[in-house]
Amino acid sequence: MLNIVLVEPEIPNNTGNIGRLCVGTESRLHLIHPFxxxxxxxxxxxxxxxxxxxxxxxxxxxxxxxxxxxxxxxxVFLMSSHAQKSYLETEFQDxxxxxxxxxxxxxxxxxxxxxxxxxxxxISPLVRSFNxxxxxxxxxxxxKRQIQIK
Length: 150
Hints:
Order of helices and strands: EHEHEHEEEHEH
Number of strands: 7
Oligomer: single chain
Strand content: 15-25%
Helix content: 25-40%
Strand order of the largest sheet: 3-2-1-6-4-7-5
Structural class: alpha/beta
Number of helices: 5
Radius of gyration: 14 Å
Distance between the termini: 14 Å
């Protein structure tokens, strides 16, 4: 099982779509406060459709509360447009933690400083960033592909 971590998500539709993606890929979703919405928000449930009831998810008050739940910090991978290494150059393992920042600004420098494994998603210079749900789908898809062929 992969662990998908959203740090301070802002858009309920993205979180709902990522929740549905986690159900479909048998991944666990970890949500770190503060959120830009309430989990009860109809947009979260609408985007997650009727799959939300099947979602394995946890929420944390802050990054520190989440970190104590991680058994091996070396298996935490932070997605950042400023990273040098592509997620396509990474060997993923079952149980890895894939961390994504909030839609407007990504991960803070404070969070990035906590972990050495920073990865980027290759992107055309014509585009500033991918939608958060799409970015999660790229990385989860590659990680699942690797895990299934091992």
